[in-house]
Design goal:
Layout (H helix, E strand, L loop, with lengths): L5 E10 L5 E9 L2 E5 L2 E3 L6 H13 L3 E9 L12 E12 L20 E8 L11 H13 L1
Parallel strand pairs: 1-6
Antiparallel strand pairs: 1-4, 2-3, 2-7, 5-6
């Protein structure tokens, strides 16, 4: 008997401020620190835009408007934390729906080593490096960001 392929669909928001900085999140999950873009997993019954808006409400307590699609994974990427699962990541540019202030830090991984700990930082796009990000798809998005902004 063969098993059906499994997919993990992730949706991320690229929020750029007026200083040409992008919002990133430092998180402690599954026993490791990670730096990535805000967003998360698509839940059954959700569309990608609905998912992204929910993730920003849950993680940052802010409402966002989706501006446009930026990138979708266009190659095979196996999920790091799950065996025999293909990862598909979708990125959208977003803007805040209001003048909400997002609490941030300047120090990477300025969070306790506790499951689910999270903090946000602004990083200058022109100084971004793929090596600042934990996951291969985010690293590819960094290259596209630098070419776009």
């Amino acid at each position: 008997m063969t098993t059906s392929p499994s997919f993990n669909i992730r949706v991320y928001g690229l929020l750029v401020n007026d200083r040409n900085e992008i919002l990133v999140t430092d998180e402690y999950r599954m026993g490791m620190y990670m730096t990535k873009f805000p967003g998360g997993g698509l839940e059954y019954g959700e569309g990608t835009l609905e998912c992204l808006k929910r993730e920003f409400r849950e993680e940052l307590n802010v409402e966002v408007h989706i501006k446009e699609h930026f990138y979708t994974t266009d190659y095979f990427q196996e999920a790091r934390f799950f065996n025999k699962m293909q990862l598909l990541s979708i990125y959208y540019t977003v803007e805040l729906a209001n003048k909400a202030v997002i609490p941030t830090t300047r120090t990477p991984n300025n969070i306790p080593q506790e499951e689910g700990a999270q903090a946000f930082r602004w990083l200058a796009i022109n100084q971004l490096s793929p090596s600042q990000f934990t996951f291969p798809i985010d690293q590819k998005v960094v290259e596209r960001l630098k070419a776009t902004f």
